[in-house]
Design brief:
Blueprint lengths: L10 E3 L2 E3 L6 E6 L4 E7 L3 H20 L2 H17 L1 H12 L3 H7 L1 H14 L7 E4 L2 E9 L2 E5 L5 H14 L3 E5 L7 H11 L7 E3 L4 H9 L5 E5 L2 H13 L3 E5 L5 E4 L5 H13 L11 E5 L3 H12 L20 H16 L3 E4 L14 E4 L6 H4 L6 E7 L2 H9 L6 E5 L3 H10 L4 E4 L18 E2 L4 H7 L1 E8 L9
Parallel strand pairs: 7-8, 7-10, 8-9, 10-11, 12-13, 12-17, 13-16, 15-16, 17-18
Antiparallel strand pairs: 1-2, 3-4, 5-6, 6-20, 11-19, 14-15
Bound molecules: NADPH dihydro-nicotinamide-adenine-dinucleotide phosphate (NDP).
The site of NADPH dihydro-nicotinamide-adenine-dinucleotide phosphate has 30 residues, from helix 8, strand 10 and helix 9.
Enzyme class: oxidoreductase
Pfam families: Aldedh
Family: Belongs to the aldehyde dehydrogenase family.
Length: about 475
Amino acid sequence: MTHPAQPKASHFINGEYVEDTVGTPIPVIYAATGEQIATVHAATPAIVEQALSTAKAAQKAWAKMSGTERGRILRRAADIMRERNHDLSVLETYDTGKPLQETLVADATSGADALEYFGGLAASLTGEHIPLGEDWVYTKREALGLCVGIGAWNYPTQIACWKGAPALACGNAMVFKPSETTPLCALKVAEILIEAGAPAGVFNVVQGMGEVGGALVTDPRVDKVSLTGSVPTGKKVYAAAAEGMKHVTMELGGKSPLIIFDDADLDNAVGGAINGNFYSSGQVCSNGTRVFVQKGIKEKFLARLAERTGNAILGDPMDEATSFGPMVTENQMNIVLGYIEKGKEEGARLICGGKRADMDGYFIEPTVFADVTDDMTIAREEIFGPVMSVLDFDTEEEVVARANDTEFGLSAGVFTKDFTRAHRVIGNLEAGSCFINSYNDAPVEAPFGGVKASGVGRENSKEAIKHFSQVKSVYVRMGDVEAAF
Ligand code: NDP
């Protein structure tokens, strides 16, 4: 019998599901059991061509619609997503293995927020009138044209919406390639947009590995590439986009600092560290995986952290009581287990976890290392799993310098009751998305993105509009033209 997660076909192009079984089969594995629940096929060159030419053709008419009309469609799509939140959350859980307890509140809901927010902004995308005596200039905010979105595997619904919603609000068309690991959810986003009234071809989904992403990025018809992925992939995609002078948004990895001062509220700081390391089993780009704890509260912090981490419920992700799911794939589990071994070998003190959980699926126990030093591998490289490194510090000046000593710059957080210090420290940290007495909140109203190797551009908020549109300026002369000859 076909599994309920099996999509109708692999791709969604020009308003409908499209299959081409010539493409390499991609098995979809449910991370909680290791069972294959669906198969899709990678896009062949013919499918890529179909998607790009369809999107290119659909974009012009879409851009000519008023912002109000485009916005209404996006907001209708948001309503449909919210109505179907339960089914979409179950699919997200099948796609990623994340527990339903999380997916019910963080995936389709977050996608709907983006559709609603950018739907609301669409009608307000206007230009300026610039008086120059008798003459004047007016500006228009125009679509970029054909955009490509490429997603990572941790938030397949959210990533499709965070890219698709602002792109479409501005009058662009998009071809979106999900990660081969989580190909299911973006298809639902495409289906819902059509149901909400989006013209066929403005949002298309094609499956495939990096090769398909590469074909999309290098196509001369593409005007913009928005990637969520790792830094090495980001460098490749950025370089390929530069060849064609394309616009880019790069949402890449991180190794973000979370700084906890002696005067912090202990339970809130522990809660922040848990949210910043163990949500989605640690598979979150903005995680605060270097937790710097001031020496005065270090042991109290570790004791409380170990106690609360012991309350994590590992189990069937479809059971809403489960609060901690598996790694997305066996491969990712093995990568993370390799980092845990490195932590042990390099002399970090294991506080809790530290191994694969004794159950089916790709579960790793939430793991905390203390006495981590700046040079250890687990303190330098992005792990993308449930491994928290706790480092000690004495002074503010010292911790800021150490926190900034990384190629990454996605996020940063600080816990303290001293607000002057909180703002000063955040002001000195090299990071794009920051938190004071909190961690990992990502409301659509707030810009999201990194500095340094963690990326360029911003998603969400009004900032995203700037990255999916461009300004045309028009000089209007009211009198005669003077010329030298
Ligand atoms: P990858 O960088 O491996 O892949 C990202 C996407 O790019 C995938 O769809 C992948 O396809 C595709 N891709 C790979 N090579 C190319 C290429 N040469 N040209 C075009 N596309 C290509 O990341 P993961 O999927 O492993 O995701 C984890 C990473 O994503 C982490 O580093 C994490 O920090 C980052 N991330 C960043 C976020 C942010 O907003 N800053 C949010 C979430 C994750 P395929 O995998 O199918 O081969």
